[in-house]
């Protein structure tokens, strides 16, 4: 089993196509297909089901891909460690983030990082929290900015709390609560609501807030991006709970203060072991530029 075979298999899984995988790996498709076939023969099972429309990962392929990604990440870290031993940080830094991220100026942080380590290539991805946590565990993402409960840190990960963001309700202009001094969860739950999908940090936060208050609500619409969530609320399809920082950037809706809702916690998370030199350098800069967040005030 060769590293290039692992890389080819991961590329096929990521792109869903042998043609696109070959393009990503800079090889001809026949060579990539041949190596995948050799790998499947060695493993004694098919990793992919092929048809005229798409390539689908088999159950065996799903089992194989996790360790394959870890092996590729370990090989990249090994190369980076050797280069870093000579005094230069090189390699690739993979950062994942929720959106929006108001707790810090990420572009400014990355600009400083690039000035210090110009040989590092940085990739950014936006995902829901559940996906980001898994990718950090798998070493396919070096560090992630998430909204997650600091009282229950994911096993094997290091967390740095960056901010505690107060939550507000957002409603359309002309809504019964627009201009109100405050809103309650019970009042918001009188109508169907808009929220992010399950697996996102803010959805988990909001679900737990309603459950703690003993209030049952209906999520009538789910949006996987804040800009779409704002549009749904502005159209009158339901109120939503968002951070005050996010609401400040939403001109088409009105924000209303909330009572009895704890703040949302924004954290940086990275793997406790096996971090690459590029990742360690970014964590060092993050610690330098972001003071420890004070404990959250209880609402």
UniProtKB/TrEMBL annotation:
The keyword Protein biosynthesis is annotated on this UniProt entry: no
Transmembrane segments: none
Pfam families listed in its UniProt record: HTH_1, LysR_substrate
MF (Gene Ontology): DNA binding; DNA-binding transcription factor activity
Keywords: DNA-binding, Transcription, Transcription regulation
Keyword match Nucleotidyltransferase: no
All residue ranges annotated as the HTH lysR-type domain in the record: 1-58
Signal peptide: none
InterPro entries: LysR_HTH_N, LysR_subst-bd, WH-like_DNA-bd_sf, WH_DNA-bd_sf
GO-annotated cellular components: protein-DNA complex
Domain of life: Bacteria
Family: Belongs to the LysR transcriptional regulatory family.
Protein name per its UniProtKB record: LysR family transcriptional regulator
